[in-house]
Amino acid sequence: MRSVAVIALLLTSLAACGGLQSERADPHPRESDELHAREWHDRVVRLEGEAAEAAASSDDCGTVCPLAIRACELTARICDLANRDDGDEGTRVLCEDAEPRCASARGAAASRCECPG
User: Fold this and answer.
1) All residues at 6 or more sequence positions from 47 whose CB lies less than 8 Å from its CB, including other chains
2) Residue 11 exposure: Cα atoms within 13 Å on the Cβ side
């Protein structure tokens, strides 16, 4: 009889945990996407400046290239969100701003180094 009570308690606990997971699901994925896009865009802006500064002051391609590559990876993420969320003006604007920043970071790196990608 005691084992039945323990099993019932375990099943109740599992059911409660499953309920919590569904309540934690993001009810507004577009808002979450835009938040991520804004955070990534802020990083792209910083990385663009860091890549230009590093290229101007150093021939260390091990520093310059990763900055430019990361700026462009984040730009691709932002633009992927913008393409996925048709009609989301916020992420579209962030994508349009990030693309030339990626190109600028790549250009700064290319002025000193032959970076992959």
Assistant:
1) 67, 68, 70, 71, 74, 105
2) 6
52: helix, strand or coil: helix
How far is the first Cα of the chain from the last one, in angstroms, to the nearest whole number? 66
Low-confidence ranges of the chain (pLDDT < 70): 1-30, 87
Number of domains in the chain: 1
pTM of the predicted structure, to 2 decimals: 0.73
* CA–CA separation, 117 and 115 (whole Å): 7
Please name the residue that has the structure tokens 């606990």: 13
pLDDT at 30: 65
Alpha carbon distances (Å) from 15 to 6, 7, 39, 42, 109: 14, 12, 35, 41, 54
**Residue 16 belongs to some domain of the structure:** no
Residue 112 belongs to what domain range?
Answer: 30-117
